Amino acid sequence: MMEQLKLPDFMDLYKGWEHLPPGSRAELRRTATPDDLLEIPAFYRLFSGRAYSEWAKLRFQRLIFCLPCLTHTNEDIGIGKALAKGMKVTEKRLFQVVRSEQPNDMIQLRRILKMAEPAVNWPKAAKRLWYWNKRSKRDLLEEYFINQPPKNH
Predict the structure, then answer these.
(1) pTM value?
(2) All residues at 6 or more sequence positions from 120 whose CB lies less than 8 Å from its CB, including other chains
(3) Are 13 and 63 in contact (CB under 8 A)?
(4) Strand stretches in 39-128, DSSP E
(5) What is the pLDDT of residue 4?
(6) What whole-number distance in Å separates Cα of residue 150 and Cα of residue 50?
(7) CA–CA distance, 81 with 119 (Å, rounded to integer)
(8) pLDDT digits 0-9 by tens, 17-47
C-alpha cells in the first residue's frame, strides 16, 4: 500500500503571513519573480523551519510568492473558480500560464492573481500550488471553464 505524503499545514503559513508586520508584507508583495524572495528577510521569517529539502523549499517559495495576492475564505473556492467568478480574467491569460514553463508560469499566474485579488480557500489553493505541474495547470483551466457564468445568447 502506497503511503500518502503528509502535506504541510497551509493554514499555519497563512496565519504566519497575516502576522507579519505591514512593511514585511509589502516587501513580499513587491517581488516580481520567485527568486526575488531569496533577497527579502520577510521571506525567511515566514519560511523558517518549514522545509529542509530542496524540493520542499521550492514549493514553499511558490506558495509565498502567490500568498500576498490571495485572501482566504472558508468557502470551497479554488483558484480557477475564483478567477472565473472575478470576470477580470480572460481565458487567453490563463492559457499563457499553462503554456509557460517555470518560472514564467508562476510569474504569469501571480500577475493574474494580483489583478483579480481572488478570495480562495487557501488550503485548497495551496495544495494546487504545492503540486504545481502540467496536471495542476490543466486542473486550474478545467476549474476555470467549469465555473464560467452562463452566457446569454
Answers:
(1) 0.91
(2) 70, 71, 72, 73, 77, 78, 79, 81, 82
(3) yes
(4) 71-72, 119-120
(5) 57
(6) 42
(7) 10
(8) 999 999 999 999 999 999 999 999 999 999 9
Cell 487557501, residue located: 122
Contacts (Cβ under 8 Å, ≥6 apart) of 113? 66, 69, 70, 79
CA distance 123 to 73: 10
Measuring CA to CA, which residue among 55, 54, 37 is closest to residue 46? 37
Give the Cα separation of 58 and 64 in Å (integer).
10
Sequence-ordered list of residues with C-beta below 8 angstroms from that of 150, at least 6 positions apart, any chain: none
Residue 120 pairs in a beta bridge with 72
User: Which pLDDT score, from 0 to 100, does residue 1 have?
Assistant: 45
Whether 66 contacts 115, CB under 8 Å: no
